[in-house]
């Protein structure tokens, strides 16, 4: 199971990195989203994998998994949303100001031209 | 605490004064006066102490772990300066009320002035050197605000920037000096430092310490060669100049010279550095002042010259010279403040400060002229005025010190020359302005100022005379305690009298007066000579060259590391991360796999992981088909939340699921304005290169995860698991960590979220984007119908969803749930209404306010907008209050624990019994969670509704219907 999770993290990272290196804004945002999945998963599994032992105190519980990485990741997920939102609006603004959706503001998508 | 409150009062008062200005122009002046008086009142109970020979020191713990205390000190020197700062401050408050015109903001002026006053008080009352430095920097900052008060004037902005750059640089040097001083002495407390003079002077680090501290003092007190900022600071309103350049800002430098006199003085280094800088400044200022045609320019250079005189006196390192220095600080403050105010009156009533046009004003304003003449006489050092006394002491001391030196005539000669120029420019100030023919082409016919504008000048001029005529009866006790606490030793013998018999000092005074009259009579050829040879020298040229050089250097350094291309920047970053990650691992001999035994693999997990991997590849493969990529990335997110379910993290799963929904909605909204397809990349090599980097990064991440997962570990989780119920009152440990153990972190995180929302609104402000009217397949968007089934269902679901989110919020402390998740669920439920029923319909039911002013004009209803067609401007639901309430509640919950004497954000809980419901528990952390909930709802709604609001902006260039 550990190997599977490691592979999943690796695949998410690879996909995220590849997309983050693209020229247009939208794939970069997708790439950042993939990378935040990878990072969140990675942080989360730092508490090691455990099945059926949620960190909710009760008399019947057989044991508890590490709650600390979970607390970290919970806020990280919400903050990632804030960041994604900010970046995507930034890319909208860039498109409005520069007339294209290249991360460096270049006119590579000249087939579409300036939008106004 | 009294000294602390005396310093604090003006800072608090700054806000009060700004508020008072809303009620009327005079209100802020009254408030500023009241604040100044209140600050004085805090000092009154301790006034007698310096005269009794005790030094009052009040210490409060601030950062005990660092050995930093808030420590205040009231001795004779501090008392003298507090008196100058507050006393002259009060007069300036009165004067400025009449000086400022109806166009100037009173509140802003007095607010800045109170900030400055508090900072100055902080300097003079500080016992701790680091604390002193903080106030020192605050004076630089607040004087920047004051000098640039007339922000619309370019010279005001430049003058303020120059003052800040020069004094800020000096302050930085002084920080270094103070740290060295603290290192030498082993304490930052002044009482220790002042008692360790011998230790400091004998230390090998004495010279660097002295140089750094003197750099701070000389820049602040405008000593040569750093004097050039002061004349440019004259672009400030005259009350500011009168305050900053008579009693306060520039006096902060000489104050420190006096303050550290016992610790640093008495060495040849001190003598040569301080007295030569003082002498150069004295001469340069006196000479240049004569040739300034601007009244304030003349006074500015005169100020520089008098500061040089004071510096020179301290440089001489004899007790008597130090007494004379302290005395001249008092005298200069009184006559220079009154002269600046007189110059302001002349400017105010005549409309110009140019002495070539101001002539013969005696006829128009004889009363002001009389006041100015007395003050100018004090500036020139004429008998019966206070300036005479300290100047006599100055001459006497110079003669005394020079007696034993070879070339002993040099210092007295130079000083007499400077004295002659002082007499000359004082004569010019009076003769050119009030006599010397008729005014030339004045904007207004001058007349006497309002009654109360003259009062501050009158008070100061009377002081000049009273001190000048009867020094022993007036200033003597204050001077004695101030000088005594400057020296920290018993006072030398001196007599404050007008008449000391015919001695060398009197002879030099006489020579200076005669010389001054001669220079004034010869002014025409002198002016010509000066214009030809000296005036071209402008310190601004090297200063600007230096600034340009620094800017060019930083551009060069920035250029080295920033190529201006995000794509390349990201590449460098990833490569650096790869190298930094791989190299240490290759260098070591650690095994990749650890000893921990893992969990067995099961089929469901395998299938889920397979789905995730396929979806990831699909996202990458189809990233140019953007809608398809959105669907596949949604699959990835869902599998990630399943993974959280599987591995005992129900809270995470719930959060991930709801975030997933809002993220996809967000990306869909944004995609409307971005190209839905992108052209394939032509650069095959780049794709190959990126694929290799991605592969390496993925392998690295996987290897790292594997290496960690196969190793056993220690965790601090035990503490949280054990204390969650007894300490935090909740059995959901993750939630208890969020709202209790690490509540402060959570407060920070919701603040970040709120800021992201506000930042997005700011970015969208005035944004005009046009979406294509047709999709890529050439089909027109269908803007007007909302699917009936979806609309109906979401309306029914809304109350249910809200109920669920309340349930999730309430149970969050004990079962999976909590503010974050509940907030997201509420946001999703509301967003669904927008999606299903349209923004107009939903906003009407959200009681949306009309659009805030920065939302672009909605303009004419457009025929394509369906039910919005006859709705006029679309109001957007304003979620600012939600965010504000949320942050407020969360922060106040923390403050509430202070009331019970606990640290910030300590939570408490108790169990209650309610019929039917049974026993349940109330924890203060749940209130905090409510704050989290509100912020999450507010920020999410704010982001999505504003982005969605763009769709309703009038769109130019849209296809025909």
Please provide a brief summary of the model:
The complex is a heterodimer of chains A (116) and B (961). By secondary structure, chain A is an all-alpha fold.
Describe the structure.
The complex is a heterodimer of chains A (116) and B (961). By secondary structure, chain A is an all-alpha fold. Chain A has a single domain, classed as Helix Hairpins (Orthogonal Bundle). Chain A is built from 3 helices and no strands. In chain A, helix 1 (2-20) packs antiparallel against helix 2 (25-45) and helix 2 (25-45) packs antiparallel against helix 3 (67-98). The longest helix of chain A is centred in the C-terminal third of the chain and has 32 residues, at 67-98. Chain B starts with a helix and ends in a 12-residue tail after the last helix. Chain B is mainly α and 961 residues long. In chain B, the strands form 2 sheets. Chain B has a two-stranded antiparallel sheet. A two-stranded antiparallel sheet of chain B has the order 3-4. Among the domains of chain B are: 265-521, no CATH class; 529-560; 730-952, no CATH class. At the A-B interface, helix 1, helix 2 and helix 3 of A face helix 26, helix 27, helix 28, helix 29 and helix 30 of B.
Which term fits the overall shape of chain B? elongated
Shape of chain A: elongated
**How many β strands of chain A by DSSP?**
0
Strand order of the largest sheet of chain B: 1-2
Q: Number of DSSP helices of chain A?
A: 3
Average pLDDT confidence of chain A is 85
Biggest sheet of chain B: strands, sense, closure? 2 strands, antiparallel
**What's the number of extended β-strand segments of chain B?**
4
Mean pLDDT of chain B: 86
Q: What's the helix count of chain B?
A: 38
How are the SSEs placed, and which strands pair?
The complex is a heterodimer of chains A (116) and B (961).
Chain A: H1 2-20, H2 25-45, H3 67-98
Helix pairs in contact in A: 1-2, 2-3
Chain B: H1 2-20, H2 25-43, H3 48-51, E1 56-63, E2 68-74, H4 76-99, H5 106-125, H6 129-147, H7 154-185, H8 190-195, H9 197-202, H10 206-220, H11 229-232, H12 238-247, H13 249-259, H14 261-264, H15 268-290, H16 295-315, H17 319-350, H18 366-380, H19 386-402, H20 410-434, H21 451-469, H22 476-487, H23 504-521, H24 523-533, H25 540-561, H26 566-587, H27 603-621, H28 626-646, H29 650-671, H30 684-709, H31 717-728, H32 733-741, H33 743-764, H34 788-811, H35 819-837, H36 839-845, H37 880-899, E3 909-914, E4 918-923, H38 924-949
Antiparallel strand pairs in B: 1-2, 3-4
Helix pairs in contact in B: 1-2, 1-5, 2-4, 2-5, 4-5, 4-12, 4-17, 4-21, 4-22, 5-6, 6-7, 7-10, 10-13, 10-15, 12-17, 13-16, 15-16, 15-20, 16-17, 16-20, 17-18, 17-19, 17-21, 17-22, 18-20, 18-21, 19-20, 19-21, 19-23, 20-23, 26-30, 27-28, 28-29, 29-35, 29-38, 31-32, 32-33, 33-37, 33-38, 34-35, ...
């Amino acid at each position: 199971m550990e190997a599977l999770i490691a592979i999943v993290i690796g695949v998410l990272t690879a996909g995220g990195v590849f997309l983050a290196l693209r020229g247009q804004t939208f794939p970069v945002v997708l790439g950042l989203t993939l990378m935040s999945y990878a990072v969140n998963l990675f942080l989360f599994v730092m508490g090691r994998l455990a099945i059926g032992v949620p960190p909710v105190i009760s008399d019947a519980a057989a044991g508890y998994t590490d709650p600390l990485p979970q607390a970290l990741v919970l806020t990280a997920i919400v903050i990632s949303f804030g960041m994604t939102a900010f970046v995507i609006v930034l890319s909208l603004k860039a498109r409005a100001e520069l007339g294209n959706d290249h991360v460096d503001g270049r006119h590579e998508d000249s087939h579409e031209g300036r939008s106004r | 605490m009294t000294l602390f409150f005396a310093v604090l009062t003006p800072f608090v008062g700054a806000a009060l004064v700004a508020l008072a200005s809303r009620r009327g122009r005079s209100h802020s002046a009254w408030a500023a006066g009241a604040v100044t008086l209140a600050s004085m009142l805090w000092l009154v109970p301790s006034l007698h102490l310096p005269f009794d020979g005790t030094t009052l020191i009040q210490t409060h713990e601030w950062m005990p772990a660092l050995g930093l205390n808030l420590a205040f000190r009231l001795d004779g020197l501090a008392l003298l300066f507090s008196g100058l700062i507050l006393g002259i401050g009060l007069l300036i408050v009165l004067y400025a009320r009449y000086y400022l015109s109806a166009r100037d903001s009173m509140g802003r002026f007095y607010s800045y002035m109170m900030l400055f006053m508090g900072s100055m008080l902080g300097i003079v009352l500080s016992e701790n050197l680091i604390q002193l430095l903080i106030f020192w920097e605050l004076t630089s900052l607040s004087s920047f605000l004051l000098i640039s008060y007339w922000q619309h004037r370019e010279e005001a902005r430049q003058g303020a920037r120059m003052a800040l750059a020069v004094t800020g640089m000096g302050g930085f040097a002084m920080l270094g000096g103070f740290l060295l001083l603290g290192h030498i002495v082993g304490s930052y407390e002044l009482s220790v430092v002042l008692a360790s003079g011998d230790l400091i002077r004998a230390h090998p680090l004495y010279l660097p310490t002295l140089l750094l501290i003197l750099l701070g003092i000389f820049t602040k007190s405008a000593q040569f060669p750093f004097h050039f900022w002061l004349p440019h600071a004259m672009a400030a309103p005259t009350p500011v100049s009168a305050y900053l350049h008579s009693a306060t800002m520039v006096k902060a430098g000489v104050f420190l010279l006096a303050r550290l006199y016992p610790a640093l003085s008495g060495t040849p280094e001190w003598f040569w550095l301080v007295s030569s800088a003082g002498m150069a400044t004295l001469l340069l200022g006196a000479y240049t002042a004569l040739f300034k045609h601007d009244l304030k320019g003349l006074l500015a250079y005169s100020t520089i010259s008098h500061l040089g005189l004071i510096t020179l006196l301290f440089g001489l390192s004899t007790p008597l010279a130090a007494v004379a220095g302290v005395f001249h600080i008092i005298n200069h403050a009184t006559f220079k403040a009154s002269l600046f105010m007189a110059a302001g009156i002349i400017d105010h009533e005549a409309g110009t400060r140019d002495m070539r046009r101001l002539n013969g004003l005696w006829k128009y304003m004889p009363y002001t002229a009389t006041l100015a003449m007395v003050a100018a006489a004090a500036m020139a050092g004429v008998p019966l005025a206070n300036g005479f006394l300290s100047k006599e002491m100055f001459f006497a001391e110079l003669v005394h010190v020079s007696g034993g030196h070879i070339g002993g005539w040099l210092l007295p000669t130079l000083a007499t020359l400077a004295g002659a120029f002082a007499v000359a420019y004082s004569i010019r100030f009076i003769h050119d302005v009030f006599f010397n023919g008729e005014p030339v082409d004045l904007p207004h016919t001058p007349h006497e100022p309002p009654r109360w504008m003259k009062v501050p000048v009158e008070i100061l001029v009377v002081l000049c005379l009273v001190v000048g005529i009867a020094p022993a009866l007036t200033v003597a006790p204050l001077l004695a305690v101030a000088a005594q606490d400057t020296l920290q030793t018993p006072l030398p013998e001196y007599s404050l009298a007008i008449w000391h018999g015919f001695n060398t000092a009197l002879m030099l005074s006489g020579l200076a007066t005669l010389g001054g009259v001669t220079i004034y009579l010869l002014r025409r050829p002198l002016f010509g000579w000066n214009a030809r040879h000296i005036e071209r020298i402008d310190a601004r040229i090297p200063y600007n060259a230096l600034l340009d050089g620094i800017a060019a250097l930083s551009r060069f350094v920035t250029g080295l590391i920033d190529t201006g291309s995000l794509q390349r920047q990201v590449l460098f970053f990833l490569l650096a991360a790869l190298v930094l990650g791989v190299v240490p691992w290759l260098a070591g001999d650690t095994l990749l796999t650890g000893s921990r035994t893992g969990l067995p693999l099961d089929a469901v997990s395998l299938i889920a992981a397979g789905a995730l991997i396929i979806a990831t590849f699909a996202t990458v493969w189809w990233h140019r088909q953007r809608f398809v990529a959105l669907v596949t990335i949604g699959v990835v997110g869902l599998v990630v939340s399943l993974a959280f379910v599987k591995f005992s993290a129900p809270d995470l799963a719930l959060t991930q699921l709801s975030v997933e929904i809002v993220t996809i909605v967000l990306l869909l909204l944004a995609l409307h304005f971005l190209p839905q397809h992108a052209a394939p990349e032509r650069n095959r090599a780049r794709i190959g290169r990126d694929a290799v980097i991605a592969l390496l990064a993925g392998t690295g991440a996987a290897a790292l995860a594997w290496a960690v997962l196969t190793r056993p570990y220690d965790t601090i989780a035990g503490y949280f698991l054990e204390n969650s119920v007894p300490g935090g009152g909740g059995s959901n440990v993750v939630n208890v960590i969020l709202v209790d153990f690490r509540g402060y972190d959570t407060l920070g995180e919701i603040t970040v979220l709120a800021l992201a929302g506000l930042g997005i609104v700011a970015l969208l402000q005035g944004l005009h984007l046009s979406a294509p009217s047709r999709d890529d397949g050439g089909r027109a968007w269908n803007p007007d119908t909302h699917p009936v089934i979806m609309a109906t269902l979401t309306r029914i679901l809304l109350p249910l969803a809200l109920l669920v989110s309340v349930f999730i919020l309430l149970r969050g402390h004990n079962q999976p749930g909590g503010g974050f998740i509940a907030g997201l669920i509420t946001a999703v439920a509301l967003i669904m209404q927008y999606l299903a029923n349209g923004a107009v319909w939903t906003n009407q039911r959200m009681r949306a306010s009309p659009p805030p002013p920065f939302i672009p004009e909605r303009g004419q209803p457009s025929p394509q907008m369906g039910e919005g067609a006859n709705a006029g401007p679309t109001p957007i639901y304003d979620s600012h209050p939600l965010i504000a309430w949320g942050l407020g509640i969360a922060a106040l919950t923390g403050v509430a624990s202070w009331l019970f004497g606990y640290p910030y954000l300590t939570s408490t809980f108790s169990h209650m019994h309610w019929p039917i419901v049974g026993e349940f528990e109330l924890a203060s952390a749940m209130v905090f969670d409510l704050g989290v909930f509100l912020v999450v709802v507010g920020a999410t709604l704010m982001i999505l509704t504003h982005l969605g609001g763009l769709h309703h902006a009038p769109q130019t260039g849209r296809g025909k219907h």
